[in-house]
Task: structure prediction
Amino acid sequence: MLVIMRKDSSADQCSGVEDAIRRMGFTPLPVPGADRTAICVTGNRDPVDSALLSRLPGVLECIAVTRPYKMVSREVHPQTTVVQVGDVKVGGSEPVIIAGPCSVETEARTIAIAEAVKQAGAKMFRAGAYKPRTSPYSFQGLGEEGLVTLKKVRDQVGLPVVSEVVETETIDLTLEYVDALQIGARNMKNYSLLKKLAKVRKPVLLKRGLAGTFEEWLMVAEYLLSGGNEQVILCERGVRTFSDHSRNTLDLNVVPLVRQVSHLPILVDPSHGVGKRERVRSMCRAAIASGTHGLLVETHTDPSTSYSDADQTIDVESLRGISRDIEILVGLEDLFGHESNPAVA
Amino acid sequence: MLVIMRKDSSADQCSGVEDAIRRMGFTPLPVPGADRTAICVTGNRDPVDSALLSRLPGVLECIAVTRPYKMVSREVHPQTTVVQVGDVKVGGSEPVIIAGPCSVETEARTIAIAEAVKQAGAKMFRAGAYKPRTSPYSFQGLGEEGLVTLKKVRDQVGLPVVSEVVETETIDLTLEYVDALQIGARNMKNYSLLKKLAKVRKPVLLKRGLAGTFEEWLMVAEYLLSGGNEQVILCERGVRTFSDHSRNTLDLNVVPLVRQVSHLPILVDPSHGVGKRERVRSMCRAAIASGTHGLLVETHTDPSTSYSDADQTIDVESLRGISRDIEILVGLEDLFGHESNPAVA
Amino acid sequence: MLVIMRKDSSADQCSGVEDAIRRMGFTPLPVPGADRTAICVTGNRDPVDSALLSRLPGVLECIAVTRPYKMVSREVHPQTTVVQVGDVKVGGSEPVIIAGPCSVETEARTIAIAEAVKQAGAKMFRAGAYKPRTSPYSFQGLGEEGLVTLKKVRDQVGLPVVSEVVETETIDLTLEYVDALQIGARNMKNYSLLKKLAKVRKPVLLKRGLAGTFEEWLMVAEYLLSGGNEQVILCERGVRTFSDHSRNTLDLNVVPLVRQVSHLPILVDPSHGVGKRERVRSMCRAAIASGTHGLLVETHTDPSTSYSDADQTIDVESLRGISRDIEILVGLEDLFGHESNPAVA
Amino acid sequence: MLVIMRKDSSADQCSGVEDAIRRMGFTPLPVPGADRTAICVTGNRDPVDSALLSRLPGVLECIAVTRPYKMVSREVHPQTTVVQVGDVKVGGSEPVIIAGPCSVETEARTIAIAEAVKQAGAKMFRAGAYKPRTSPYSFQGLGEEGLVTLKKVRDQVGLPVVSEVVETETIDLTLEYVDALQIGARNMKNYSLLKKLAKVRKPVLLKRGLAGTFEEWLMVAEYLLSGGNEQVILCERGVRTFSDHSRNTLDLNVVPLVRQVSHLPILVDPSHGVGKRERVRSMCRAAIASGTHGLLVETHTDPSTSYSDADQTIDVESLRGISRDIEILVGLEDLFGHESNPAVA
Result:
């Protein structure tokens, strides 16, 4: 913490700040400048709460220096964490495709889609049994019936399955059926959900919220790790900005940044990031090239009849194209090689 | 729904779209234009899902015409809804101040604050027993102990109390102690919470999310109303934008807009909207002048020692000033007079 | 400048940074922390360029401490600057209304509007002769013919006139006809225009850009002041955010902030800030209550026939209402009283 | 244009709107709906101005249907435009690297950089002689001296050169020295500059503004094309959002969208889009994979001593790596093949 004093602050005011820092158990270190003084807070192990200092007489502002997250940081854990979902490794040397329809549909159709995406290169299956929907009048998901279908996908098709949980009440039920749990963008700051998922023994796929800063997102992951669950996969899916030509603004800049500052694996969901089927493959390519450990792609054998999000769902032929793209893209130098300094340079 | 055809679309493609509209049970009405054709969907009672139409050959885009919300609309309910919390009316002809510390603190201190804010003009008390916090290492609220204290505030000080619920598990418990429940900004799209609060017989104060559009916010209120709870109070508390000089960007434009299109009462929370104590009173004035039905103001007898959000918490003397401001501001013409056409003109 | 070292930085790397700071002519002051070291740069009079330091081995990041603006700061100029336009004072103890149509129209109609807005309480007249338009196919303004009309307004109606300049070539011509020049939002960072307006002997009304941060906006004012023109009036007109229910998001939080950190007067333009006629008066009230020194309001005797921006142009009767509102609002305590600490508290 | 009537609008009000449409020279077509009526405006060749209609009694809102841009649209010009700068083709089947330092530096150093980037695969050289800078106290570029150096680069090194123009006064001078002119992000809506560049016989590289929507950006290109200059290259360089971990938010979603709706070539500038040297190569890869026709990369033989933007400037070795990346990425299917339907599917 650095306390910046006002230009016209008095020596007494500076002493007052130093005393307050000492009362907090830390050591003040004054730094005289050309036209104002700054006072460093030293001796703290954790971020200092600025509240007690920022309102003292003569103080202009307080600047935080220590990063608030610890356990998710690559500084404390230099090797990339590999999260295993079923027999699939996320965070290793191969980008992983997770595919499936937005919602679980009928059993027959869901299994047919799973077979098709597996043939097209997907290593994991994802579909929603519980759907958070903007309108109370929209389809809300099949619930437990959907979970039963997902388990059949796993058993019959042989793909690990991941599905979203939207409330604490259905976590235990969902765990019986799926291999990994997704926290959706709307629930990134649902701390009640996070605290319970921190106690779960299965991997969690954590989507970034529509208004989530990079630091907030990592702090949410910190909730999970500090609560006991280290099997966390981050997932960028676009943020909300003024830019209205796409459903969201896919912020691919986070991919090399996550790989630089955190040891957690990072996925990208171009389906929500773009929102338009015909541009999904281009953004899948971009995501892989930026260094993501995998893709989440809404895929359907007959996209226009999807139960939800039909506009952004691609067909199986396109998914096959994406698999071919990945074969080429993994030829890029050091795409997953530099564990401790992962941004290529 | 209006289906815009591409310039180079063929007559067959137009027929295809018309057939699809008929299969949905609606009536197509083609509108030939100078250089392209549009096809109106008529006969629908509810918003039409564009998924089935937007992907048909020759279609450029689909434009929604019907507004997705119904029960919250002033078109179906011309008079402003007055929500009663204890004996306090929100939405009537007098702006209401709701004040209190960010978090419930010790019983003695909390009651002292409540006495002081009552003297200063507050009509309702608000403090958090359950706190959603960005960092897992921050103070998380006193829980039930805090609720007990809130009930003592109501009984001893005589102010109705409102407090935030952050998970479904504690709704019933919270209902035993408080007069109204708050849905915080982070939980605006926590549909699990919303569906349960729709069944509650007490008023709900619904904060706008950091990335919530106006329409999404009203749709969330629609969840509550369509689920059975008509005692909903909206609350603007700032949104997240590039503008980094304040904690959030307080979007006061919504105040006259809510009053124009919805019958629900609208509050403003300038504490979170600005994030800096010394600018809170100015924004309280602005909010009242824009037509808000009340204010939510974080207030403390000793702000710099607040358990949380000290930077944005004002002292009691400032709250008294805000009460005096309101006495002047209610002199503005038609501030709450034009029920059916509330934006002054 | 504060240089934060990585946790794993070596003593040699710290020495390297200290040497680099000395080579820049400044004095390094190391601040050892619990788990990392920071090195303060001291002895600088101006902001330090981080480029030379941020890339040195072992450096995590550089944090700027000194504010980049000087002449616009209230720290160096404690009294609010009063800018005089004709015989009208902006920044004094009375909020000023500046009104007029978006574009200069025919002479007869423009003069009729000017007479009407004067009767309704406006103290200054504003209309555009040169219009920056999003579409090349839209009306681009009357040019010099418009300027001639503006001068007639001044001579016949007796209101000082202000008009926008969009290019350096027409500055001299415009100066012959008007009392103050406006820099529009689109040109906030048109440095070529700014440098020439810094040499002008007439007041400049500087609108905030759609993506302009508070600091950038003050830095643009700094261009004008450091170039020799101290008659600068700031004007907030809304910024661009995801919030799509209004034309722009009016960021009233800047009003008390400008008054706190700068000595320049601040206006608000609710017409662009809202974009919808029926909500303009509500936001005018809010702006005045927040402490603005005046309003810019697009007004017309027959709004729906305006040459441009008809949707956001109010009629003269509404402007009269705003004048009555101001009579009430100036009753607020210390609305313009606290020059050196202007945010009311 | 579609005029939506209020639910409670009367038959007379509908007739009034129809009459107004006829007075504008167009044909009204009423579309009765379940609970409200819409009236289509037909017979217009250009976008209809909503001003005259939106304020009529009974009207709820007006929805534009016709796209405002024409000449930049792929609908009217199905083949991608190839813009030739010197002997380099932008928009063809090979992605082009444009590199150089942020600012022109000394002649010797600038030529040395140019030689180095040419060896590393760059096909064009870019450096700024006139620099728009946020602070009046920052380095403002070398001006004509810089242009002279750029011409020497072209003559001695053999790379076409591009440089930014920031004011109309220096356009003619700049044209004597360079092969293409850049419009910077800050000047995207500097219409005075745009109108003059529309008359120029050299290619224009048009950067997207920090708050520029996709449609506004294309409308700016429309200014250039409709004014007579068809040699326009678009360039995405990041927009301003709440996301504060990178200098800007690089909006790669526009790349497939530009290729879908416009025939103009599209470049990406990851240097500004990220703002941090160590993440530039990752985003260059992403940009190429998304389908950009080329890259603008700030490169220097000794980045940390750059005159400006040192933090985002890469070294020559990294540029060589990007060239190797492109060799792999052009192996992607149909990267530039589908001229008339360019988003891969």
Observations:
- Chain D touches chain C through 43 residues (CB under 8 Å).
- Residues 338-345 of chain D have pLDDT under 50 and may be disordered.
- Residues 144-157 of chain D form the longest helix (14 residues).
